UniProtKB/TrEMBL annotation:
The keyword NAD does not apply. It comes from Microbacterium rhizomatis. One of its GO terms (biological process) is L-glutamate catabolic process. The modification N6-(pyridoxal phosphate)lysine is found at residue 283. It comes from the Bacteria. This is Glutamate decarboxylase. Residues 1-23 are annotated as: Disordered. GO terms for molecular function: aromatic-L-amino-acid decarboxylase activity; glutamate decarboxylase activity; pyridoxal phosphate binding.
Amino acid sequence: MPATPSTSPTSNLGADPGQNQLNPIFARPGEATDFALDRMPQSESLPETAYQIVHDEAMLDGNSRLNLATFVGTWMDSYASKIYAESADKNMIDKDEYPQTAAIETRCWTMIASLWNAPDPAGAIGTSTIGSSEACMLGGLALKRRWQLARRAAGKSTEKPNLILSSAVQVCWEKFCNYWDVEPRYVPISDEHKVLDGFELEKYVDENTIGVVAIMGVTYTGMYEPVAEIAAALDRIQESTGLDIPIHVDGASGGMIAPFLQPDLVWDFRLERVASISTSAHKYGLVYPGLGWVVWRTVDDLPKELVFDVTYLGGHMPSFALNFSRPGAQVLLQYYLFLRLGWDGYYKVQKASQDVAVFLATEIGKMPAFQLWNDGTDIPVFAWQLTQGYTDKWNLYHLSERLRLKGWLIPAYPMPDNLTDMVVQRVVVRNGLSRNLAESLLADIVEAVAYLDALESPMPTEGLVTSFTH
């Protein structure tokens, strides 16, 4: 839009920083050129003007494809974008108005139940969620309610339930325990036991234990927790104590990796002790945020008391969710991808990501400055630490800052309890990070390390903060 002759390109210089100014080149005669940042404007503006301001501000976020800190998908093809635009107005909860979207939701979780080797996918039960956090919350609620019902039937107290977790668990489980009055019992990880693996599990469980959470792809490092070993430990505990403790598998990432890349790994409903599994569809399910899935082995594993019969807009429907109204577009996107890729396509996409992760991990592991924590052969995620004694001039926080100058977001952060003195960096390889981009990243890491190594004195450490939010 051309500027009017009377509009000066410098007319907004020195303006109030509490205003959002429109560049004069976009202004039309008689149109407002600045907007307050903290209150609704009094009058309307043209759609082009509002779009330009939102577009320009969002542009400051940077390139999401270079954000290697997040597990959340940042790329879908043009047909997916078209479906997204066409179905953004669908409310997932309104199954009477959008019955076909509801039917597609059922198809999707039934396909996923089969992917996770449910003994009878048609006899399983599942639901879509707004993300893996809600899916975990629902899985945890079902564990708690099943425990409560069993305790009441036996005439026992339902006070002080507890849940067994790795100290490296995702923060949504801390929220679950806080919000629903469940005592979290954290099993600490260590150099010897890098994940929850069943070691000394008997020290943590008792008659008030509602379940154990096993993670397929620990957020800190990407490693799988050995669900079969955890189940075997719980089998031994049941033999000696009579305690029958179920497992919820948090497959936020690995739930959509393991079926394709490690199909022989037994972690899912092939283990009878696994009552429920959740995943994040907007991670390695390859869908834009936000979408998650949770599936129970059988209908009986989801207490019927938690399912509501809801009358909404003239129809009756079952509802088991923390959110009510929510978008249905992502469910359609998941179905699109299942049809578009099939098993072979998902294998190719996930294998390509794993190949890039293993390439990067191998090359970074060759550098004297670094020691790998894992190698990216579980989910396409790996972490490394600074080699002990390598340098006193810089640390991984400084390296993270140097890489940010090139646009890369690669977090540095301390490990959880018992290992808080250890700082690592982590790369998440997602669909869209090509081998060419990975080679560019590797070149930038080599350049950054060379720069830091050449310093004549140590880098300042004041103000350094973790850039990790899991």
